Amino acid sequence: MKKRENLWFVLFPVVLTTSMYVVFYSRIESKPSDAGFWFILVLGISIGVALTRFFTFAKHQKADNG
Hints:
Elements: H1 7-23, H2 35-65
Helix pairs in contact: 1-2
């Protein structure tokens, strides 16, 4: 598998989820029984994963240059 060291792959989950959130914003409700609740949960998870990947990316860049 190809190692991807591009910043785009770090931000891709957040960009994709945020764009879907903006498109479907008028239909989203925050009740746990609705799909909107799970969509908001996925948005939070994708932000967390992107932050983790960003800090890992930065750490590897610092180690390679340092």
